[in-house]
Design a protein that fits this description.
This protein is mainly alpha-helical. 55% of the residues lie in helices and 10% in strands.
């Protein structure tokens, strides 16, 4: 699928729902939004999930001018010097379709997590890059999958990390307890503080499910 750039659309949650419906199992959704920390949107307030949920519940289909007025308020305060200046500035930003919604990487990932939960999507994070790394945007690739496929992807990623790490091989040597212990590590430290957390973190939910399954089996 082509990238879905959500900062311009009136109803991001509905866009994700519509695109997701068009994906078959294994289909991939690419999402890219500017991280306001690194753009001209920096002075603007972050868009809340409640705001976007309101748009979703009322079925918004157009960006209303309040979004553009907020842009002018925080980025071009000189537009409010006169009625004529404001009218011209509003027409200009409306014509350019300035960003209706504003996120940083943390709040967009939170928005995405809550949207996935709201819509009941089965998704595996295949890739994630944040503004802290690329100095511009939040970018991710999600794959539509059922639970079994998501766990298979997570195991493949964990195995790839394990095979390149002598410290993990030493900490979790081959044997019947290797996988349960390795999964418990991946679920906790591996997904949060480890140097490979950017790779493992998107699969945290699958690691939790796998760790619970192996714990019951043992």
């Amino acid at each position: 699928m082509p990238p879905a750039v959500l900062e311009h659309v009136p109803n991001p949650i509905q866009v994700i729902a519509d695109v997701w419906d068009g994906l078959g199992s294994g289909g991939r959704l690419v999402l890219s939004v500017p991280d306001k920390t690194f753009t001209y949107d920096r002075p603007r307030p972050l868009t809340t999930f409640a705001h976007l949920l309101g748009h979703y519940f009322r079925g918004a289909t157009e960006v209303d001018d309040d979004h553009y007025v907020e842009f002018l308020e925080h980025c071009h305060a000189e537009a409010f010097q006169s009625h004529e200046a404001f009218t011209a500035a509003l027409a200009a930003v409306r014509g350019r379709r300035e960003h209706a919604h504003v996120w940083d990487s943390t709040t967009f990932r939170s928005f995405l997590d809550r949207t996935v939960a709201l819509l009941g999507l089965r998704a595996a994070w295949l890739h994630e890059s944040t503004g802290a790394t690329n100095r511009f945007e939040y970018f991710c690739v999600l794959e539509r999958t059922d639970g079994a496929e998501a766990r298979a992807v997570a195991l493949t990623v964990l195995d790839a990390v394990y095979r390149t790490r002598t410290d993990l091989k030493a900490a979790f040597p081959d044997g019947p307890r290797r996988l349960p212990r390795l999964l418990a590590w991946a679920r906790d430290a591996g997904c949060t503080v480890d140097r490979d957390a950017p790779v493992l973190g998107p699969h945290a939910e699958a690691f939790r499910a796998l760790a619970a399954t192996t714990r019951r089996a043992s």
